[in-house]
TrEMBL record:
InterPro entries: M28_fam (IPR045175), Peptidase_M28 (IPR007484). This is Peptidase M28 family protein. Residues 34-253 form the Peptidase M28 domain. It comes from the Bacteria.
Amino acid sequence: MGVIDRDTSAALRRTTAPVRLVLDNRPVMKKSRNVLAQTKTGSTENVVMIGAHLDSSAAGPGINDNGSGVAALLDIAAALGPRPRVANAVRFAFWGAEENSVQGSTQYLRGLSSQQRQDIALYLNLDMIGSPNAGYFTYDGDQSGRLNPDIPVDAVPDGSAGIERTLSGYLNSAGVRPADMPLSRFTDYYAFLRSGIPVGGLTAGANQLKTEAQARLWGGRPGLPFDPNDHTPRDGIDNIDRDALTVLTRAAAFTVGTYAYSIDGVNGVPARDQRQRTAP
């Protein structure tokens, strides 16, 4: 028996030609841990969560994927401090085992009681926010872009559209026009989506090819991936667009602050007594 990653699986599904697989790694059982921290102030019945995965592909150092997201979380947490004057508690999640079928976030939610899941007002995800051929994407909470058939429209939790509008509003005010990134089953927010928790987040793109229109909008090189070094040994410290990392970190910080002060309003998320939560 062999284990392959999702990129290899996708490539195999696209071809009908004979394929020779060389299994060059031995399966090893390892323990992975999530790391969580929460402010000491704010309501614990309306927790604002933001997360990024700690692990990287075995093929590379993982500086963009996902050291960039982790660095943003640390920066936001340091700026917020342990006792901010906020209405709602903020919880930071550093996920283990994202590269292994998003097991870290999934097992975390399965380990919570129904009441603890009910306490989570929303979840923001940061994954690859410093891609060197950067795009500026918000996850498509309002389902206005190209849809992923794996995620039906009615499966997206109420409040996700408001999160996208909040993120997009900041990016537009910063002079960057955002675009939709279709929702996916292969990122940490998916376990939250399946649990009925409103989701949102940011990415600068992965191995998708940048189009001519996107290059005119954001700069960079069309016809190349947003991160040509994704899951390779070249995902090192030089594999970062610092401008994209700065803008997207600030957008995430603005959004965390917005919901930490209030989950109400036109871009709000459902109040606690209106939430329906399940195990993922």
